[in-house]
Amino acid sequence: MTVRCGIDLGTTYSAISWYDDFNNRLENIELPYISDGQKMVSSVVYYPGEGQEPVVGDTAWNSARQFPERVIVGIKRSMGLDYKTPPIDGKEYTPQEVSSVILKALAEDAGKILAEEVKDVIITVPAHFGDNERAATEEAGKMAGLNVVGILSEPHAAALAYSVHKVMDIVDKYLLVYDLGGGTFDVTLIHATTEEGAGNALSLKIETLCKDGNRGLGGLDWDRVLAAIVGEKVMQEHGVDVRDDPRSEAILLDNCEKGKRYLSRTRNVSIATGEGHQVDVSRSDFEDRTRDLVLQTRLLLEQVVDDAEEQHGIEKDKIDVVLAGGSTRMPMIREMIEDVMGKPPIEHRNPDLLVTDGAAYWAHLLKEGGTVKAIERKPDGGIEEKIISVPTDEMIDLSMYAIGIEVVKSDGKGGWTNFNKVILPVGTRYDGKMIKKEFYTAEDGMQEIHIRLYKGDVESLDECQRIMTFIITDLPSDLPRGTRVNVELGYDNNGIIRGTALVETGQKVDIIVERDKIV
Length: 519
Prior knowledge:
The chain is of the alpha+beta class. The chain is built from 10 helices and 26 strands. The protein starts with a strand and ends with a strand.
């Protein structure tokens, strides 16, 4: 027997949860082997040496103090990019390979706790992840030996978890999920609505209206600023550069990550370095030095709020901000959000686990007839229960980028020019619906057609980024020039671009997808 789980594959921390159908409750799984019984595990991989299995979690992170050249941290920021790790024992690793080690460790540890095999999983990704990143995440799951039943945007997961927990209040809500994790940032406006069903059931709908994000912004950047503050003070007081040695730098970053958490609760913190130096840092100093980072998130927040009004007529006083990601605990973040929105954000339960909660709910809801139970205590002490369903077509996400194909047109001078023609505009839904395009063989006996796809909404190919090539293969060898090949392209429910091809004779032919790595 196997168990379906939801996995938040984070840049700095990851977690796995499941919905216990028998007891009708969600469980965050404590990980005894890779996280000493904690519900979150460091997204860190240590490669001990040839012939030895890689190590995941806190043990791996601690190994960075001694063997920083063998430890991989923050690999999620490189997902879908043209990147490989520096060689370890002569081998370079792709982000998919490193991520698969983390996913496998999570699934195996969870399986030991549940006494069941964990095979079917939902994996979450940042909202701004496009086709390349989502496909790479899916590939990482497959490398880990998992059946990836879905890829879910992190804000969708957070909104789903919040809506299930507060379903009695969800009739027609605009939720802006401000998701600041360890390595990535998203801000997403979601419309959550409920509709009465049969009996005591509620049908929940989660729909993205607009979103923005930054794959290179997260808690890691605040850690590095804090490390710079400490490093400068040690240099001034002792004439020692504690960041000059990789081992010392690893220790410093670890201590600064912990120090950052303390500064969310206290006004001052003392941070130790690997050389035994101790430095006091105030919250005000830390906030002054990270104002530019907060401003980056503020500008994206304001942009989505402006888009909400311009595109959908939704004023900001109708919007509630829901916090997701551990970095939202910093007081400077909450103060900024209140300044922009005119009211404080909502911290619902544990922001670190809100995404994995939603992933677990979605994993369960995707089962045939899957429902979850919501229980809420009334002011008079009574309990109200609701059975919640979320039809697949009511979990609506959309693209942040325009996708076009390379086509040819006359240049008006007797020649031809290639340009980008948008076929999937910004805001296209991830719903499995396909657009139909006709292509024609350029010569007799042609057995392959190459369709190049670009990210960008302008005609100039130089101003767009090629993301993939669909290669239509195994065309019949006897086709005359000008034979029509009908192609369907579109996003599946996971935000991954798929395609099919059919020769005008009715013969279905294969499409091979070659994805370009984003530099």
